[in-house]
Design a protein that fits this description.
The complex is a heterodimer of chains A (163) and B (338).
Chain A: E1 12-18, E2 21-27, H1 33-40, E3 59-62, E4 65-68, E5 81-83, H2 96-103, H3 113-126, H4 132-138, H5 149-160
Parallel strand pairs in A: 1-5
Antiparallel strand pairs in A: 1-2, 3-4, 3-5
Helix pairs in contact in A: 2-5
Chain B: E1 5-8, H1 12-21, E2 25-28, H2 34-39, E3 47-50, E4 59-61, E5 67-70, H3 75-79, H4 82-87, H5 89-96, H6 101-106, H7 109-114, H8 120-123, H9 165-171, E6 175-180, E7 183-188, E8 211-217, E9 225-231, E10 242-251, E11 254-263, E12 270-271, H10 273-279, H11 286-296, H12 308-325
Parallel strand pairs in B: 1-3, 2-3
Antiparallel strand pairs in B: 4-5, 5-8, 6-7, 6-8, 9-10, 10-11, 11-12
Classes of the chains: A alpha+beta (163), B alpha+beta (338).
Chain lengths: 163, 338
Amino acid sequence: MADAANQIPDRIPINLVVNGVRHTLDLVPWTTLLDALRDHLELTGTKKGCDHGQCGACTVLIDGRRVNSCLTLAVMKDGAEITTIEGLAKDLTLHPLQQAFIDHDAFQCGYCTPGQICSAAGLLAEGRARDADEIRELMSGNLCRCGAYPNIVAAIQQAMGRP
Amino acid sequence: MNNFQYSRATDVADAIRLLAADPGAKLIAGGTNLIDLMKENVERPSRLIDISRLPLRDIEETADGGLRIGALVPNSDLAYHPLVEQRYPLLAAAILAGASAQLRNMASVGGNLMQRTRCAYFYDTATPCNKREPGSGCSAIDGLNRNHAILGTSASCIATNPSDMSVALVALGALVHIAGPSGQRTIALTDFHRLPEDKPHVDTNLGTGEIIAAVELPKHGFARNYSYLKIRDRLSYAFALVSVAAALELDGNAISEARLALGGVAHKPWRSLEAEAALRGRAATSDHFSRAADLLLHGATARAHNRFKIELARRAIARTLIQAASATPQSQAHKKIA
């Protein structure tokens, strides 16, 4: 039995539709979606925080569902539609969540913000949060070391249309 | 992460063939636990077999009124499925008590059953660990063991199974459908995970080359009197110190059927038929709940830092049974509901 781990695997061609734009990439299989976005497509809005699925900074939407891109292998998402923070605004109009985060000063350093906003976009699409307690629970996968949580919750409530 | 080969399975038989062809291969579905462990060099598969596109995503009613859940159903889809919300709310509650919304979107039912312990020594490749490296020793037994097991431990390992979903599934009497090189078989979920004994590197009774196809729930879902209570160091997105799944069938104040399982305390979801038998036919009173807690915790032993877990579990069991009996289950969002 050859030791497969010692062979250099072929790069695998995949297609990703990122923020509406189709890309063809040749990737080694251990490339995470996060690294594909940041290092291969130069979409550095998505942040690498813990790189272990614990902080949520890398949150993106795959086919409309929020996921941790650091724990996702890009080759497994061949053909998928990815939305990152760069894809939320329409032309010069901010996404309602982006505007709400500005309106409520929902960040300090801003490093967690792309993940917070993409996660909140997933939360709104899921339609499971009805009040502040439920927003807090369903946003618990996104950490903010600056502690902007009260303002993040307020921003999401504004975007939900429930002040 | 080590270099590895990547294959995409075209059907279940193909996945089984690919597994047989490469002893170092591992299946990957959601990847939330496996990729994390690969980044830590704890798992070093020679090949990943991507099963995420296999047609194992259906949730369907069985002929005898139960539910068959495909192994690749994402945790969130299962928790929010109307039939699960209506008939098996204990399962929905347990799933929603675990991980984060993002991870629940990614993680599969089969992967949840296969997830490995979060023992810090298992993750730390600089320390001995019998689960990671058989025969190297256990760093937890005389180390920092606040989070570790109090039931079913061995001299080789005191790790816990971290799943919330499995605790509810065990209480509900779930079955696991398995496909493998020699055909299909079905086992009770209580027999799926194993105790560490002298082989802690073997988490489950899944055989070499086998794959989980589905999980099946029997008809009785205990939709009225149930609760899943999870005690943890922070109120969300943390593994359990102790969790309790309780399900009762009440006739007035008399218990006609009882199910009780613990998470966070052992190498597998912990269920005791004696504890459940002690509730059956009795009144739903705190005396009887305490008696059941004693039976469920029979034989519990502590190490240097986890003695608190025994009393914590005792109180959590009684509280969860009260919640179940009064039909006010623990809420994952509104934490103050008692």
